TrEMBL record:
Domain (VOC) ranges: 7-122, 150-269
Cofactors (names): Fe(2+)
Keyword check for Metal-binding: yes
Signal sequence segment: none
Keywords noted in UniProt: Aromatic hydrocarbons catabolism, Dioxygenase, Iron, Metal-binding, Oxidoreductase, Repeat
Record-listed E.C. numbers: 1.13.11.2
Known catalytic reactions: catechol + O2 = (2Z,4E)-2-hydroxy-6-oxohexa-2,4-dienoate + H(+)
Subunit structure comment from the entry: Homotetramer.
NCBIfam families recorded: catechol_2_3
Family annotation (InterPro entries): Catechol_2-3_dOase, Fosfomycin_Res_Enzymes, Glyas_Bleomycin-R_OHBP_Dase, Glyas_Fos-R_dOase_dom, VOC_core, Xdiol_ring_cleave_dOase_1/2, XylE-like_N
Stated name of the protein: Metapyrocatechase
GO molecular function, one term: ferrous iron binding
Length: 307
């Protein structure tokens, strides 16, 4: 049952060197730098995104993800979900408006897989970059690099998939769109959506809590993904795998690394999900094809390179 969570709103990523990170997220991915704050954090967005920012970079001694935030339809929804999160047993932190520049109050909470998430309802809206809200052109001039359109989802690794599934479906109102079951019928991967997208967040079972696999950015066409591959090679950026297609979600994809070791994905296409759809199920004996549909075998780096 939908609870009023609309979409992924932002992700805060830890990077080791901000100047090097900006070469990746701003110059290569093509995200637009929107602001900086007195903590030294840098705020970026994809050009189609209406809100002020969707990616926050924070310089740190260790790479990884600090949190992902989900935007809700109203402050009343945030209040209601806050109470439900407490009842579920989450540890909460109320973060005042303005702690992220241009963002309203946020409620941060932990999860059974050890990751931290936020809900919020208010953020400054700056509109699609370079386009008028009235009679907009097809796309803005001045885009750079891969020209990522939006922050789409993240993939996270952790131990308690059942607990996190319960949190996201029963409290936050996400649907289970796709899953991988092992030979014992145990779920080892889950793809969750709050919308019609193939997934807004995904989890893979892993013995350690709170591991970050990748942040993903949406492109419009397969040709855009191939162009991204060219730019990744032109900049000698470390590549994981692709371009290829997933069996899971059927998105067309390429994976590569930022200078800190955080993995990025750009992709196009993918399935859609309505609330009356049953989850799509893959089995672990077809996992190679599920992850990399063309190669049909797993890349060890894809499974083990985490931050």
């Amino acid at each position: 049952m939908k609870k009023g969570v609309m979409r992924p709103g932002h992700i805060q990523i830890r990077v080791l060197d901000m100047d090097e990170a900006l070469k990746h997220y701003r110059d290569l991915l093509g995200l637009i730098e929107m602001d900086r704050d007195d903590q030294g954090r840098v705020y970026l967005k994809g050009w189609t995104e209406v809100d002020k920012f969707s990616v926050v970079l924070r310089e740190s001694d260790t790479p990884g993800m600090d949190f992902t935030g989900y935007k809700c339809v109203s402050e009343a929804v945030v209040d209601q979900l806050r109470e439900e999160l407490i009842a579920f047993g989450c540890q909460l932190e109320d973060i005042p408006a303005g702690e992220l520049k241009g963002c309203g109050r946020r409620v941060r909470f932990d999860s059974p897989t050890g990751h931290h998430f936020e809900i919020y309802a208010t953020k400054e809206q700056t509109g699609k970059w370079g386009l008028s809200p009235t009679n907009p052109e097809a796309w803005p001039r001045g885009l750079t690099g891969i020209k990522a359109t939006r922050f789409d989802h993240c993939l996270l690794y952790g131990d308690d998939l059942d607990g996190t599934l319960k949190l996201f479906t029963e409290v936050l109102g996400f649907d289970l769109a796709e899953q991988v079951l092992d030979e014992n019928n145990t779920r080892v991967a889950q793809f969750l959506t709050a919308s019609m997208k193939a997934h807004d967040v995904a989890f893979i079972k892993h013995p350690e809590k709170n591991k970050f696999h990748h942040a993903s950015f949406y492109l419009e066409t397969w040709e855009d993904v191939l162009r991204a591959a060219d730019l990744i090679s032109m900049t000698d950026t470390s590549i994981d795998i692709g371009p290829t297609r997933h069996g899971l979600t059927h998105g067309k994809t390429i994976y590569f690394f930022d200078p800190s070791g955080n993995r990025s994905e750009v992709f196009c296409g993918g399935d859609y999900h309505y609330p009356d759809h049953e989850p799509v199920t893959w089995t672990t004996d077809s996992l190679g094809k599920a992850i990399f549909y063309h190669d049909r075998q797993l890349n060890e780096r894809f499974l083990t390179a985490l931050t």
